[in-house]
Q: What sequence folds into this?
């Protein structure tokens, strides 16, 4: 587990995604300032924030819970980017660039989750008691 969330590549890529989303939201019509524009920025910020908070918990189950929330925010963000495209707030090229960055973050986030899940599974294999397991065939 990285001791500092800023050392995580997925966190850095999520921060780049936030920058792209803010650039996109700046193109939205002014009457969307408190609508989709606000919502899409909020959910984009949620992704690196959840990654950082989970890492800072120093508990793998907590970390996984926050990474799950980041995944949910990514799904919400993808929906909002596609909605912005459908509503004509962004063109296809701009949307595709943001969606490519979104895919990159999503893939890295899933890889981090799997690595942490393997750590949990491996830790579960280690006996927690110095005493022998009474159900073991060696007792």
A:
């Amino acid at each position: 587990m990285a001791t500092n969330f800023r050392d995580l590549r997925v966190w850095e890529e999520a921060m780049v995604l936030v920058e792209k989303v803010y650039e996109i939201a700046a193109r939205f019509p002014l009457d969307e300032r408190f609508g989709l524009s606000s919502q899409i920025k909020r959910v984009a910020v949620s992704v690196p924030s959840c990654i950082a908070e989970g890492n800072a918990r120093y508990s793998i189950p907590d970390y996984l819970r926050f990474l799950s929330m980041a995944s949910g925010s990514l799904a919400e963000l993808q929906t909002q980017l596609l909605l912005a495209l459908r509503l004509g707030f962004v063109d296809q090229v701009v949307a595709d660039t943001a969606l490519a960055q979104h895919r990159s973050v999503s893939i890295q986030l899933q890889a981090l989750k799997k690595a942490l899940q393997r750590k949990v599974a491996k830790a579960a294999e280690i006996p927690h008691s110095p005493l022998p397991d009474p159900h073991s065939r060696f007792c």
